[in-house]
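cron nightly-structures :: item 1 of 1
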Amino acid sequence: MAQLWEIGVRGTALDVMAAWKEVVLLVGILAVGWHVRRWPAVRAADVLALAYAVVIVVYWLLPSGWLDGEATTRGELLALRHHLFPVAGYALGRLVSAAWPDRERFGSLVAMAAVVVVSVGLVDLAFIPLQSWRESGVPGWYREQLGLDYEGLSGLPENWVFNTGDEENPLRRLVSTFLSPLASAYLLVVALIYVLSRPFRWFWGLLAVLIYVGLLYTHTRSALAALGAGLVVLALAQRRAAPAVLGVASVVVGAVFLAAYPSLGPTTSYTPEELEWLRQNAEQEGGTSDDPFSGGESSTASHWRNLREGVRVVIEHPQGYGLGNTGVVAKRTGVVIRAGESTYTELGVDAGAAGLAAFVLWSLALLAGLWKREAWLAAAFAAVLLLALQTDVIGVHWLAFTLWGAAGVALGLPRASDDTVPEDEEDEEEDETTEPEPSD
């Protein structure tokens, strides 16, 4: 999209082209729905997904002024699209489960996507200077097309670099095709959980190392913590100790890497204009720590502040303010941002306690349904729900489509028996012990 903006495709034409994901999703739902011509057996998660969708639509229909909100019509439409993305992905997955029972191929596709993201990101860090990005269509795409005016890095998102406190030594982070270190990190967490759920083979080991290196270079502490938690969940679901050991090891290695990042990270430099803005911003915010493990570190302090404020708003105004009053949507449409970052507080503000409760109940039902059907997916889903405390995970469209879609597919699988081991191991045991049946 940024490249299209740079060559002159802008305004409504680019908005239409940027909707390719929605078009693919709609065509997929219609095509698969026509093919299967039936909805799979209704599960509790299906009912809760419908309940969540109904609450979102009701809040979209309610005039924002009735709820003391200030959202514009455009903001309401953007928020409707945003909140219903996971429902649409889930619906496609449920339909696909009736036509495509191959569960292994889906995880392999996720792993392949992660390899592409890591490869592009590492090549970018090694060979493409930050100045090339400043001069690209990315700043214009964000500023003029999306209405997101980033000031601290010449129009690029400020989180593209890690500010060490040394004006001469800012460090770059892996952003890859997502143009975001956070979104890239979340994909890599999901992919790593899948790869580490497989029985050990040398090629899975190499793949895990490559993806983990990419995750480290995103310099995303929340993703490293979520990976550790997800691997512990995987260990419980598969009844294996290895994922938990790897989870603890990943957190330890990640902590060491973050501490050493000022010496290991790819360096860049600020322009004079960026330095001036950063100095003014530092004076306004007051002193903050540059220690990545300190609660006073600027990013950590910002996340906690936004979460506390969002929770306070939800408690004080449980009926919500209506769609379009939170997060990126509010920023893009120029209204007061009532809550930001956390998926839960954004839902609680946009769709009230009813919308938040519906989403949480739906998520718990999905987690319970996945537990005995697809261990790696249950673990990945748990990790993403943890990330949702500080991040708008629904706003990462790859997660909204792929993870919720995969959950829909997996719910069409039969429940595994209590003594289930990973499928590849089952295959090996059958190969070793099963005698061929005599022919007729």
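cron nightly-structures :: done
The CA atoms of residues 219 and 258 lie 7 Å apart.
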